[in-house]
Amino acid sequence: MNRTSIEASAPGKIILFGEHSVVYGQPAIAVPVSQVRAQCRVDGGTAGAGILLRAPDIDRRAYLSETGDDDPLASVIRRTLTALGLATPPDVTITVTSTIPIACGMGSGAAISAAIIRALGEFFQHPFDPQTVSDIAFEVEKIYHGTPSGIDNTVVAFAQPIFFVKGQPIERLTVGAPLTFIIGDTGIKSPTYKVVGDLRARRGKNPAHYDAVFMRMGALARAARAAIERGDEAAAGKLMGENHAILRELGISHPKLDALVSAAMDAGALGAKLSGAGWGGNMIALAAPENAADVRAALAAAGAVRVIETVVR
Ligand code: MEV
Question: What is the C-alpha separation between 14 and 276, in angstroms, rounded?
């Protein structure tokens, strides 16, 4: 028997090290951000009506039967029903909401997918393990941005800090001492597929150069893992600065991202860098706990449209 109503959620995420180079096989580090979440509620619907999809945040209301295969929300529902072995669409209403800003590098698409997969699994009394949630969400990530590395779906499905290498089993990152991150949003929307696609085209013209840059980023991610594991905040902060410098060199930054990074450093942050796809979206700063309020204030004063503090343990 199905339940009458079930809710499930998934967190947002930030990438600490290795965005973009992770697409080319280098390691990266990402952590969940539970202060922002995607949520999905499944309610029993009218008999014979099929699946009604509601996304009130974006004023969307559609029956699944009216949607195409390139629709990410519909695709995640269809793939989940297949995984549940439900050949005939059940009569349910699926309502999706999210507080994760869209196109800002916080994994909004992957978190929405994960919330839907979990909620449907629970509703039909077949809860999915995190790896299955991640695998289904990964297929849908391909609709959102073409050639995803898989880091976003993995970190939101497992909801824990990860050291991630594309195509390899997940490695949990042990955090030696809690790390306080301040996330500053430029307010500039930047769809991941555009930045990833542009970089792919540029790499296509000069693979040796770009692959050497990506290897430097991979080395930074490995060094950062060691620093985080031994609880060395100062070393982790320094490595963030080096990672930001390489991302700038790659043409991934934006003047507003650079301004927020400088503002955080001037306010005493241990390190700062852009996070996610770049060209807009978010930056992150690592701060000593006693300095976090100063960094938050500096980011707001420098024009961040939203500032979130999160502690990684
Ligand atoms: C997006 O959150 C991270 C990128 O590295 C793309 C990816 O890994 O798929 C830019």
Answer: 7
